[in-house]
Each structure stands twice: as structure tokens, then as C-alpha cells.
Specification:
Shape: elongated
CATH class of the largest domain: Alpha Beta
Strand content: 25-35%
Largest sheet: 6 strands, mixed
Distance between the termini: 22 Å
CATH superfamily of the largest domain: Periplasmic binding protein-like II
Helix content: 25-40%
Number of helices: 8
Number of strands: 11
Low-confidence stretches: none
CATH architecture of the largest domain: 3-Layer(aba) Sandwich
Number of domains: 2
Radius of gyration: 19 Å
Length: 210
């Protein structure tokens, strides 16, 4: 029996629909009254864990799940030791630099040396500004990152953007995109290499269902 790590939040509904296409039903996780964090498919051929999106690659890397679905943004930020198998073509968003609409800075490279940028994507932000050869202080925030520029704590933010509505409502505007992100299928490397529990067949069925 394989175990799949499913991400809480924006990717969950599409992820469950994808697995339904290959005959695995984890829709109990969509029930607002459900409090279980681990369930079995009604056919008893697979189990699923419901975990924070950032924790999906951790469960897969350490072998508690053989498969997982996670955003490319998380993979870029954490660089986990997992096998990246497929782009699932949903969960489209982008990691962007944003500044207040009143800001004099219209591109990232115009930010002042040793300025401050708030982000929950500390590694990605640091890597990006290092590539620009621009020394920037990255302030780690894990709540409402938009408050960084609003309160004057930072000149800019690096955050995920989908529709841009949250930025607009908080007086912010995108000035650069670091990369595009979608949901990805990942696997435990050894389990995939050894085809544990017929993992290759499940993966091929998922690829066909995309």
C-alpha cells in the first residue's frame, strides 16, 4: 500500500480530483467536519496524509510517504532530496518582488544596497538578489508579508502572487518575477528507483491523467 502526502490549502482540491481520476478517493479531506489527518482510500489500496504544503517534501524525503504533491515554490525554497516526476499543470502562481505603488523603485535592481526585503521565501529571495549582485537584508516573515512595506519595515517583499488582488488591496505592485510555480508530483527516491508497491504504475497513471 502506497502512502501519499497531500497539501493543505490551495492545492488540495485539485490534487484530490487528480487522484480520483486514477481511482483513489481521498475526498474525505474536503469534508469541513473531517478532523482526521490520515485516511485510507475506500478500496484500501492507498493511504493519504494531510500535511502543511511546506511539509510535503519532508514526509516524502524521510519515507513516510512514497508520493506527494507540492508547489514548485516549496521545492525551490527547501531543495529537498526527492525525485521530481511531473508538472501537474495546476496551482499556477508566481514568486514576485513587489513594492508600494508610491515607491520610486520600478525594478528590483533599483532597490537601495543594504535595503530590506520581507519574505517567507528567504532562500529564494537571497539567491535572487545575490544573482543581481545587490546586497539586501532579507527579513523573514511568515504571516502577512504585505505589512513589511506598509509599516515601513522593508522597501519590498518577495511573495507568491496568483491574481494580484491581495497586493492591489494593500497598495502594492509587482515589479519583477523570480519564477513561475505550479504543483509538482514528487516521490521518495529509493521507493521510486526500486518500484516499491508498484509505484511506477501509479506514477504513469497520474501522468496520463494530467
Amino acid at each position: 500500500m502506497i502512502t501519499v502526502a497531500l497539501p493543505k490549502g490551495a492545492l488540495l482540491k485539485d490534487t484530490i480530483h487528480l487522484f480520483q481520476k486514477i481511482g483513489l478517493d481521498f475526498s474525505a479531506f474536503l469534508d469541513s467536519g473531517n478532523r482526521l489527518l490520515q485516511i485510507s482510500d475506500p478500496t484500501d489500496t492507498a493511504k493519504a496524509l494531510l500535511v502543511r504544503a511546506q511539509d510535503v517534501p519532508v514526509y516524502v524525503e524521510y519515507g513516510q510517504a512514497q508520493l506527494g504533491v507540492v508547489g514548485y515554490d516549496v521545492l525551490r525554497e527547501k531543495s529537498p532530496q526527492v525525485a521530481q516526476l511531473a508538472d501537474l499543470k495546476f496551482g499556477n502562481c508566481r514568486l514576485s518582488v513587489a513594492v508600494p505603488t508610491t515607491s520610486p523603485y520600478q525594478r528590483s535592481f533599483q532597490l537601495p544596497p543594504h535595503g530590506r526585503v520581507a519574505s517567507k521565501f528567504v532562500h529564494c529571495a537571497r539567491e535572487y538578489f545575490r544573482a543581481l549582485d545587490l546586497p539586501i537584508e532579507i527579513i523573514p516573515l511568515y504571516g502577512s508579508v504585505e505589512l513589511g512595506p506598509i509599516t515601513g519595515m522593508s522597501e519590498a517583499i518577495v511573495d507568491l502572487v496568483s491574481t494580484g488582488r491581495t497586493l492591489k488591496e494593500n497598495g502594492l505592485v509587482e515589479i519583477d518575477v523570480l519564477f513561475e510555480s505550479t504543483a509538482h508530483l514528487v516521490a521518495h527516491p529509493s521507493s521510486y528507483r526500486l518500484n516499491t508497491d508498484g509505484l511506477h504504475d501509479w506514477v504513469e497513471r497520474l501522468r496520463d491523467a494530467i
